[in-house]
Design goal:
Blueprint: E1 5-9, H1 21-33, E2 37-41, H2 47-54, E3 60-61, E4 67-68, E5 73-76, E6 82-84, H3 86-96, H4 109-120, H5 123-130, H6 140-154, H7 168-187, H8 203-218, H9 220-226, H10 229-241
Parallel strand pairs: 1-2
Antiparallel strand pairs: 1-5, 3-4, 5-6
Helix pairs in contact: 1-3, 1-8, 5-7, 8-9, 8-10
Pfam family, one: GST_C_7
Protein name: GST N-terminal domain-containing protein
Domain GST N-terminal: 10-101
């Protein structure tokens, strides 16, 4: 039965508004399952206060030991549950709404978690190019927060992060190779395979699509090249997942 779910996401200046790969994972999941939900947009500096207000737990600790709060978060009004982190949200949605399309086949959560760990290990190569360009699409309310927190992550100002000169070529090739690694996982099911499970889409594919869409939305000038990689796999993936891109 359809649910009324509040989904907390981070806004932008883009026409589609949604942009973050972490929250896109949850949006894709909600749309894939056909669940009723509404989005509440929360700027970066307001995430901690929002989480404390609704009782959402922190996801990790900051270097100084203070709790760190992140999105995505969902509040399921039909059960009262408040769930944080995309992988936990997926497990919750499949368990709570078994009569909707499953995001992960029964008994594969452990395998998915191993996949996610392997896939996340490839994302720094993407983030090296995309993260420094995110400020161009953020609202003024989130700009300072993003510059400070991501600058601390890299140990330098964001405008100094994107590789230039002799460093650009190897870094760009590493990004392409990261996509190539995922392409090889998909091709393990056969050269004509479309998804991680062959011809059947599952949450692992939506996870990948979230990062591909992030790349496309933030770096459209680079997308023209990237969409041709691996026989156009990434453009085709976004075409196949476009039906799950509704921003409600």
């Amino acid at each position: 039965m359809a649910s009324s779910i509040v989904f907390y996401d981070i806004p932008s200046t883009l026409p589609i508004n949604a942009w973050s790969p972490n929250t896109w994972k949850t949006r894709y999941a909600l749309n894939f399952k056909g669940l009723s939900y509404r989005t509440e947009w929360i700027e970066y500096p307001d995430i901690e206060a929002l989480c404390k207000k609704i009782g959402a737990p922190h996801t990790r600790n900051k270097p100084d030991g203070r709790p760190h709060y992140t999105l995505p978060v969902i509040h399921d009004l039909s059960t009262g549950a408040i769930v944080v982190e995309s992988s936990k949200i997926v497990a919750y949605l499949d368990a709570t709404y078994p009569d909707t399309p499953r995001l992960l086949p029964p008994g594969t959560l452990g395998l998915y978690q191993a996949f996610e760990d392997a896939a996340l290990a490839l994302t720094p190569a993407i983030g090296l190019f995309v993260i420094p360009s995110v400020p161009r699409i953020l609202n003024p309310a989130s700009l300072e927060y993003f510059h400070i927190t991501r600058g601390a992550l890299f140990g330098k100002k964001l405008d100094e992060v994107i590789p230039t000169g002799d460093a650009y070529g190897p870094a760009w090739q590493k990004l392409k190779d990261s996509f190539g690694k995922i392409d090889s996982w998909i091709r393990a099911n056969g050269e004509e395979s479309t998804y991680i499970m062959g011809d059947t889409i599952c949450y692992a594919d939506l996870f990948i699509a979230a990062y591909v869409l992030w790349f496309k939305l933030v770096l459209p000038e680079k997308w023209d090249e990237a969409k041709t990689w691996h026989e156009g796999r990434w453009e085709k993936l976004l075409e196949n997942t476009a039906k799950y891109e509704a921003v409600l």
